Amino acid sequence: MVYRPDPLLAAPPHVEETAEGSPSAWRASLAEAGLLLWGVGVQLSEALGALGMVLCLLAVLRPTPGWKARARETWPLWAFVAWCLLVPLLAGQWPTPGGAARILDWCFLPVAAAALGWLGPPARRRLAVAMGTAFLLSCAAALCQHWGLWPDVTSFDRLRWTHLPFQRMYEPLPGEPSRYMAGGLLLHRLKFAHVGGFLVLGFLDVGLLFRSRAALAVATAGAVCVLWLPHARAASVALVVALAVVLAFRLSARRRWPALLALAVLGVGLVAGVPSLRLRFASAVTDEGSGDRRWLLQSALRAVAQHPLAGVGLGRYHPALFASADTPQEVVRHAGKAHNQYLTLAAEAGLPAALLFLVLLAWCWRAVQPGLPLGAGARASVVFLALLSLLHDPLFHAEVSMAAVLAFGLAQGMRDKRT
Description:
This protein is mainly α. Helix content is about 65%, strand content about 0%. Helix 9 packs parallel to helix 11, helix 12 (about 235-250) runs antiparallel to helix 19 and helix 19 packs antiparallel against helix 20. The two termini are about 20 Å apart. The model is unreliable at about 1-20 (pLDDT under 50).
């Protein structure tokens, strides 16, 4: 499919019809600032991203025509949020602030969509440039971390008060103790891989749709860095599958199969050609290499069996509370995840929460048209998040949760501008 610009996409009415300095113009500026901070913040820090989300909310507080119909359309989102927040609470299971925040992030999906409606083409280009620049800088930092061209871990001692995971930049590669699993500017390899995956899918979609060499360059460089530098096995496989979804939607039948073949060769070639990656994938079948997932899953299943309807409360699931006598101490001391997003949701808010999360993902897939800008990327992002959730808890990390909501929100914002 070849996209041809539609006048409705290039002319957001509530920006064009107001003079500079009017309340609506200020609202547009606030929406742009919020999306910029949100889009860059998910690549740098939770606080910056949260500030951007708040600014976007302030920009769209005034209801616009048709908001009631849009609210009815988003019932899967509100059903998921309401169940996760209210049902455990009614059962006496109070959420932790972090656990509640990760669910409340989803309430900002329509906020991102509405904020995008205030941006004209120049503002949207500035947003893309800012996010792409931050992503490339993060990739450059990841390259430096991977090769050890980075300050020694003791250099960050004076910054311990920030509670940033500086030590996560110094996880040695298997078989190569002088090389490290990189985390980019997020200083955490899984955050970098997961947030980077959403960015790669978005830029690839835009690049193919508008034949933008700059967007394709960002997507290509980002894909190589995300697949290689963090050595995140599940994220690598999920990203390759999601990239195939974008190619399937965006390319003609004549070009689709050669592109999919090239993608497969890239993925297999990286694993076969990089010894440390090959060792990482080979270790996936061992308890040590898989992060004791078998024990974590068993503990989570016990929690679900004991609290099937309301769970133990958002953020309150800990493997130690449901561990058997022979559970390894590494699992008992685990921070509190099942390494399976669906199972963690079921443990924290009951089996209906996990089911509603699946409904929410299905709604995110159906709510966008793949022919519109970011539509194919958003559908691929659904696949990416769904696959990640089988082996990880991506929403456990605030930046990843915010990035997922932003990706789906921007795609729906483009749909709303068309309709």
